Amino acid sequence: MSEHKVLNILLVDDDEVDVMNVKRAFKKNNITNPLYTASNGLEALQLLRGEGELALPQTRRLILLDLNMPKMGGIEFLKELRSHPRLKPTPVIVLTTSNEDSDKVEAYNFNVAGYILKPVTFSSFVDAMAALNKYWTLSELP
């Protein structure tokens, strides 16, 4: 993978099992993009702003976002992200267990690139990550 095609992925999820499943699905699909994790929206904002020890690179970033988290949930995070001029264009894909229409509408109102329900089985999770990988490989991200 050439250096300019590296996509820095931030997974924002408080569920350790889901984080582990994403990592395992990445490995199974040979997805080698750097994966950063945050357990809530506040942590994610710190990483994106370059605060703290583990700052995210400032270019070619994609966020995988859960909605139901402590401290700052996904919708609150999206509201904050979209109000910040430098962070506003960062693509976000919601990866959640919430099948609520109101959550979907609200997420899309904050210009998310996609809304994916977390698969129940690991093999479905692997398939979902493969599809996402194909999407971001084909997408022209700055």
How would you characterize this protein structure?
This protein is of the alpha/beta class. It has a single domain, classed as Rossmann fold (3-Layer(aba) Sandwich). It has helices at 16-28, 41-49, 74-83, 101-109, 122-138, and strands at 8-12, 35-38, 61-65, 92-96, 114-117. The chain has a five-stranded parallel beta sheet. Helix 1 links the parallel strand 1 and strand 2 (35-38). Helix 1 (16-28) crosses helix 5 and helix 2 (41-49) runs parallel beside helix 3. The longest helix is centred in the C-terminal third of the chain and has 17 residues, at 122-138. It is globular, with a radius of gyration of 14 Å. The chain starts with 7 loop residues before the first strand and ends with a helix.
Residue ranges: pLDDT <50 for 5 or more in a row?
A: none
* CATH topology (fold) name: Rossmann fold
Structural class: alpha/beta
How many domain modules?
1
CATH architecture: 3-Layer(aba) Sandwich
